[in-house]
Design brief:
heterodimer, A: alpha/beta, Rossmann fold, 5-stranded parallel β-sheet, 5 helices, B: 501 residues, 5 domains, 23-stranded mixed β-sheet, 38 strands, extended
């Protein structure tokens, strides 16, 4: 499965990549912000995206809106420090399928990925 | 073979073999349990005119036997013979055709390319000698050399039992061998070298490792040799030079005070006189003429034709010098030791350390040291993680990311330590299994030979004539035997030295 990680922190991308590798996902592409991600999605064709919110150039929310506006239905998990209820609702309205609040454990990330994919399959 | 379809009224009954007396005549048809044969039994005294081949065939069919043309012919002969002689008959008239099982896949070597053709027998046991005079150290190939052909497994041919049922043939097994990318397997099964080098068959993998030939000495004209592949030196290796190869190293001439590092085997046709400066590190086996003042670590077997003199050795498997002498120096050997002579008439101190697994112990120490470092890092990281996680103050975004990072690191370290612990258990078990004490000296043990076994030291103070076998008994007491004599405590021929003294 092709997974794209969108986060301006190299450390966070490494952590997510390692956790996903342990789950058996090896086809990973990285992007350092929303702009970078948009330039890569057409070629990489991700089947799942993990997106941070607060990034330079283009933040996560803008990226999600633009991405969905282009017609993509790929599942998106927002991985962010933004924990307020209003923010979560805003993200879901923009088209995010699931949400992980930092700090998170490897188990939490693993559960959310499984949950998101299971829902997709059920749908 | 043609076969009439068999009537098999109740085959289960026949599964146990045996016979069923037929209704009137006392004629029996018996079938083997495996249905591999059927025989007819005719008692004496019957009216010959009634014993016809048709009657016999009918009885046979009722027992489920398929009447082939061969069976029919045989029944005719039996009937005719009975009518002529009237004697009782018990004769096989039908036999199964056993299956021809398939042939396993394999490699057919092109002449001269079998990597194992000239190797000596590897195992060294009681009374055996290793003949390494006739060995060939390597098989050299050029690019595009056809070295072997893969022979595919065959399906075999099914057989038929006496009832006409199929006895399935076993298909041959697929090739139980890996062929490295350095060789090409063509559609017609030809195995062809893609590169030049040494053809090797190791641990069920066939490969070509690259070969470097040094036509004369390794000296100032060549410089040190460091090569990814195997190395052959046609003459010798001079003082202070290095030959390092990822594969095997072969030296036809004398090795002086040099350094030899081999990722495979080491063949030293003449010998090595290292003057206390040379050293040898071999991952495989070492076959040498002699070693003089050499420091060597051999992970496999060390096989010596003439002598070992004043060497410092660590041998991961067995040390065999069964036609030569081990004099002076110290050898730590995991496996067996075979020597013609131990020590010298002049009383040179010669030390053998047996029952140790030094290479594994070194690995174990390294692993335990790494584990201590990981545990320390785990403690520190866990503390930092708990401290930050339990903070009541509103955390900044970067602090939240830092907590995630610490949590991940804690998880990683836990997993790493778990893997280290598993490896440690494996190493400990290996050490337990590999410990052995078995020393065979064929001619003589001189005074001042010192054996260190299980933390105890046994000094020979008198000459002991061989053949002597020394080893552990079931309770790990060290015992010896001369020839076929009785087993006795090693204390009878040595003095145990007090370690504290």
């Amino acid at each position: 499965m092709r997974i794209m990680l969108v986060d301006d922190s190299k450390t966070m991308r490494n952590i997510q990549r390692n956790i996903l590798a342990q789950l058996g996902y090896a086809e990973i592409e990285e992007a350092c912000d929303g702009q970078d991600a948009l330039s890569k999605v057409a070629a990489f064709k991700p089947e799942l995206l993990l997106v941070d919110w607060n990034m330079p150039n283009m933040d996560g929310l803008t990226f999600v809106k633009t991405y969905r506006g282009q017609g993509y239905k790929t599942p998106i998990i927002m991985v962010t420090t933004e924990a307020e209820k209003t923010r979560v609702i805003e993200a879901i309205k923009a088209g995010v399928n699931n949400y992980i609040i930092k700090p998170f454990t490897p188990e939490t990330l693993s559960e959310r990925v499984d949950q998101t994919l299971a829902r997709l399959e059920a749908a | 073979m043609s076969a009439e379809p068999a009537n098999s009224p109740d085959m289960d009954e026949e599964a146990g073999g045996g016979s069923a007396p037929l209704r009137d005549a006392g004629i029996e048809v018996r079938v083997d349990r495996e249905r591999m044969w059927a025989k007819v039994v005719i008692p004496a005294g019957l009216d010959g005119a009634t014993v016809t081949e048709q009657l016999l065939a009918q009885y046979a069919r009722e027992r489920g036997i398929a009447i082939t043309s061969a069976a029919e012919k045989k029944l005719t002969e039996i009937a005719e013979s009975y009518r002529a002689a009237g004697k009782p008959v018990e004769e096989i008239f039908a036999e199964a055709t056993p299956p021809r099982h398939g042939r396993d896949a394999g490699l057919e070597w092109v002449e001269g390319f079998d990597p194992e053709a000239d190797r000596p027998v590897g195992a060294v046991g009681e009374g055996e000698r290793v003949d390494f005079y006739n060995q060939v150290s390597y098989v050299s190939v050029q690019p595009d050399d056809h070295v072997a052909t893969v022979v595919e497994p065959t399906a075999g041919e099914d057989g038929l039992d006496v009832t006409g049922a199929v006895i399935a043939a076993r298909r041959g097994k697929d090739l139980d061998l890996q062929i490295d990318p350095s060789l090409d397997v063509r559609p017609d099964g030809c195995v062809v070298a893609k590169i030049g080098g040494v053809l090797e068959l190791k641990e069920r993998c066939l490969s070509v490792t690259r070969l470097l030939e040094v036509p004369e000495h390794v000296d100032f004209s060549t410089g040190n040799i460091i090569f990814d592949g195997s190395v052959v030196v046609r003459q010798g290796v001079r003082d202070r030079f290095v030959v390092k190869a990822s594969g095997s190293v072969t030296v036809e001439g004398l090795v002086e005070a040099a350094t030899i590092i081999s990722g495979g085997d080491f063949f030293c046709r003449r010998g090595m006189a290292a003057k206390d400066r040379g050293q040898v590190l071999v991952d495989g086996d070492a076959h040498v003429g002699y070693f003089n003042n050499v420091r060597a670590r051999v992970k496999g077997n060390l096989l010596v034709r003439r002598e070992l003199m004043d060497c410092e050795l660590v041998v991961g498997k067995s040390l065999v010098c069964d036609q030569g002498a081990i004099v002076g120096g110290r050898a730590i050997v995991t496996g067996e030791v075979h020597a013609a002579t131990l020590g010298s008439a002049g009383g040179t101190l010669t030390t053998l350390v047996l029952g140790e697994v030094p290479l594994a112990v070194v690995q174990l120490h390294r692993l335990e040291s790494m584990m201590r470092e990981y545990r320390q890092e785990l403690d520190e990281t866990t503390q930092a993680y708990r401290q930050m996680s339990s903070s009541k103050v509103n955390l900044r975004a970067d602090e939240k990311e830092r907590i995630t990072e610490l949590g991940f690191r804690v998880s990683e370290l836990g997993r790493t330590l778990q893997a280290c612990e598993t490896k440690r258990e494996e190493l400990l078990e290996h050490v337990r299994q590999a410990r052995m004490v078995r020393l065979l000296v064929y001619k003589v043990i001189h005074p001042r030979v010192l054996l260190k076994i299980g933390g105890r030291e046994y000094l020979f103070e008198e000459t002991v004539k061989g053949p002597v076998t020394i080893g552990w008994d079931a309770h790990r007491n060290v015992r010896f035997r001369i020839g076929e004599g009785e087993s006795r405590s090693l204390h009878d021929i040595t003095r145990e030295i007090n370690l504290a003294a």
